[in-house]
Amino acid sequence: MFRNDLLKSKRVLVTGGGTGIGLSIGRRLLSLGAELMICGRREEVLAATAKSLADETGGKVFYKPCDIRDAAQVDTLLDWAFADGPLDILVNNAAGNFISRSEDLSPRAVDAVLNIVLHGTSYVTLGCGRRWLAAGHKANVLSIITTYAWTGSAYVVPSAMAKAGVLALTRSLAVEWGGRGIRLNAIAPGPFPTAGAWERLVPKPELAQAFIDQNPLQRAGDHAELANLAAFMVADENGYMNGECVTLDGGEWLAGAGQFNFIGALMSDDDWNALKPKKK
Is 148 an annotated catalytic residue? Predict the structure, then answer.
């Protein structure tokens, strides 16, 4: 459905691009001609992903380790990313999440999510924006949020808080920067299973099945569907979309607001206790 050169010569940075949704989006943008940069905390994962994608597509893939919770590291990352010319597209994908009864959350647990999702996304977005505005360069930002950014959801409260903040950031800057050539939009995916993260969020088979059963389409999302939407939203041909959040969840949130609300009836005290960090 897309021209192979849709994103030719576009310089793209995907945070959390070594695995999961970030990897899927990066692969699709690369296949459409983009020059891809990925960042994340684990250098060995980034290196393996960059080599795999380059071998698969023949495209240019670069990587740099960065913990986006650290504003100084973000500044170093962006100096690197802009060294040979400005970025054209930023995809804010890096995230952290886990399920927990909210009364069990420690301050460190709350910070673990907020520091990545809200603070880290803000550091990268604002850092790119300052550079774009100073150079008068047109660009766009796509952030991956979630439907419970506006509905809220039990058992993932720090994530709901953080994603709501990213949605507010998107809409606010779309107005402030839109007239200066910078578009900001977001995608709110429903369940798109990924290795690692999915196991933390859905630790029991019954929970995974419940996600399927409650979805009007009776299935989880396919990564290709999300990656194609991302490609459409960052393309210049979609240049009038600004400040928008597109839901891609099969109608899940309409069927029952609060993605994790249902799990309270399926998790015993033993199940919750098993998820708590073990004391050393």
Answer: yes
